[in-house]
Design a protein that fits this description.
Layout: H1 5-30, H2 33-54, H3 60-78, H4 80-83, H5 110-118, H6 125-135, H7 141-148, H8 152-169, H9 181-200, E1 204-205, H10 211-227, H11 232-245, H12 271-284, H13 292-305, H14 314-327, H15 331-345, H16 347-355, H17 367-379, H18 383-396, E2 398-399, H19 400-412
Parallel strand pairs: 1-2
C-alpha cells in the first residue's frame, strides 16, 4: 500500500523534528539503546497507517513518544525473563533496578541525559560523537560517515562497538554530577559542533541547509550554556553557531541556489544574533589558552563585522587561523587557512598552500579542497586546470545545491 503523501510528509517532518525527543524519552524507559531504537522505529512505521486512518495528531512528537514507550513496556512485559539478561544502561547494583531519584540540575532534558550517556569517557571521542549523532540526532550511518570523512562500513562498525561498550560498561543514563561536568563537556561540545556543521551544509540531499539539525544544535548549545554558564568551550560554541547561522537567510537565492559569502546581502543578516555572538566571543576569549570554538567564532565575527566582502580583514583571519591550527592541527583547518591566505596574499599564494595539502589522507574525499583549488585556478586564468578541479569537486559532492553551483562554475569555463 502506498502511503498517503500528506501523512508521509508529516512522518518525515516528525522524524526530523522529534527524533531526539522520542528516542531519548524511550531510552529512559528501556535503559537499552538497541531496544529503544527498535521501538521508536516501530512507532514511526505505525504512524504511517495510524495517521492515515485517524488523522495527523496535533502533537506528533507526543504521539510517537507514547507509542514507542508503550511498545517498549509491552516488550518488557512479554519478555520479562529475557529482559533480565539484557544489559541495563544504569542500575544501583548489578541486580537492582535503575534509580529513579531526580537529578540535581536546573536543566532537566532527556536529550541531555542521552548526550552525556553517549559521551561517556569510557568511549573514544570519535565513538562519542558518532553515536550521539546517530542516536540523538537521527542521522543515518551514511550521513555520520560523511561528517567524519570515513566510509559507511567503518562508521557502522564504530557505532556498533560504541553501543556494546555502553551496554557492557553499564554506563549510566544521566547528566553527570557537577564535579564531573568540566571533564565531560568537551566531548559534548564536539557533538553539538559536528551536528551544527552537518546541518549548516548538508552532506547530501536537495537542500543546502538542514534546518532541523541547525536548530537542534542551537537548542542544545543553549541548554549547555544554561547548565555551564562559565565554560568557555560552551560560550565559544554558542557564539560560533549564532554568528554563522545569522547568515542563513542569505546563503541561497530566491530559487534556492547557493550564494557565496562574497555575494550575500549583508543587510539581511540577523544583527541580534551577531551581537549576541560577538559578546560571547569576547567572553570566551578571556580564557587562556582560548578554546578552538572561541577562535572559530572569532573568525566568524570578523566576517560578521565587515560591512562588505572587500572590507574583510583577511590578515586578521589568517592570524586567527594560525593560532587555531597550533591548538588544533586539523587538515580542514589547514585548508580553511590556505583559502584565507589566498584572499590575503593573492590566489597564487593560496593555491600553493592548498597544493601542499593534496596528499593529506583525510582530505582525499573532501570536495572543498578541489573546489577551493578550482576557484584560485580560475582567478589565475588557468582555465583547463580549473575545469579539471571543478569536475573533481563535482564527483565528490552529493548535495544538490552545491552540485548545481559547481556545474554553473564549470559552464563559465566552457
Amino acid at each position: 500500500m502506498v502511503a498517503d503523501p500528506a501523512v508521509a510528509a508529516a512522518v518525515a517532518d516528525a522524524h526530523r523534528r522529534e527524533w531526539a525527543f522520542v528516542l531519548a524519552a524511550t531510552v529512559r524507559v528501556t535503559r537499552d539503546l538497541d531496544l529503544a531504537e527498535e521501538c521508536v522505529q516501530d512507532a514511526y512505521a505505525r504512524a504511517l497507517t495510524a495517521w492515515a486512518d485517524g488523522g495527523i495528531p496535533n502533537r506528533p512528537g507526543a504521539w510517537l513518544t507514547t507509542t514507542a514507550r508503550r511498545r517498549a513496556l509491552d516488550l518488557q512485559r512479554r519478555a520479562a525473563t529475557q529482559e533480565r539478561k539484557l544489559p541495563l544502561l544504569v542500575s544501583d547494583s548489578r541486580g537492582a533496578p535503575p534509580s529513579r531519584e531526580p537529578e540535581a540540575h536546573a536543566v532537566e532534558d532527556d536529550r541531555l541525559r542521552l548526550i552525556f550517556t553517549c559521551c561517556h569517557p569510557a568511549l573514544s571521542i570519535e565513538a562519542q560523537v558518532a553515536l550521539t549523532l546517530r542516536l540523538l540526532c537521527g542521522l543515518t550511518t551514511a550521513e555520520v560517515a560523511s561528517a567524519f570523512l570515513v566510509s559507511e562500513p567503518t562508521m557502522a562498525a564504530r557505532i556498533t562497538r560504541a553501543k556494546h561498550k555502553i551496554a557492557n560498561a553499564r554506563i549510566p543514563y544521566r547528566v553527570p554530577p557537577a564535579a564531573e561536568l568540566p571533564s565531560r563537556v568537551g566531548a559534548v561540545v564536539s557533538v553539538v559542533h559536528l551536528l551544527y556543521t552537518t546541518g549548516h551544509t548538508a552532506p547530501a540531499g536537495a537542500n543546502l541547509v538542514r534546518r532541523d539539525l541547525v536548530e537542534r544544535a542551537l537548542d542544545i548549545s543553549r541548554m549547555l550554556r544554561a547548565l555551564l554558564p562559565e565554560n568557555p568551550d560552551v560560550a565559544g560554541l554558542l557564539a560560533l553557531i549564532l554568528l554563522n547561522d545569522a547568515r542563513r537567510a542569505t546563503r541561497v537565492d530566491d530559487e534556492g541556489e547557493l550564494l557565496l559569502l562574497a555575494d550575500q546581502d549583508r543587510s539581511r543578516w540577523d544583527r541580534d544574533a551577531i551581537a549576541e555572538g560577538i559578546a560571547l566571543v569576547q567572553e570566551a576569549l578571556t580564557r587562556r589558552p582560548p578554546s578552538r570554538y572561541a577562535l572559530m567564532a572569532a573568525i566568524a565575527a570578523v566576517h560578521a563585522e565587515a560591512p562588505t566582502w572587500d572590507d574583510t580583514d583577511w590578515v586578521e583571519v589568517v592570524a586567527l587561523y594560525d593560532v587555531l591550527l597550533s591548538l588544533w592541527p586539523s587538515p580542514v583547518v589547514a585548508l580553511n587557512r590556505a583559502v584565507a591566505v589566498g584572499f590575503a596574499d593573492g590566489p597564487g599564494v593560496g593555491l600553493a598552500a592548498l597544493d601542499a595539502l593534496v596528499d593529506e589522507p583525510q582530505l582525499a574525499g573532501y570536495p572543498y579542497l578541489a573546489a577551493a583549488r578550482a576557484d584560485f585556478l580560475q582567478r589565475l586564468d588557468r582555465r583547463a586546470e580549473a575545469r579539471d578541479a571543478y569536475a573533481t569537486a563535482l564527483d565528490l559532492t552529493q548535495n544538490s545545491r552545491e552540485r548545481a553551483f559547481l556545474l554553473r562554475r564549470l559552464d563559465e569555463l566552457v
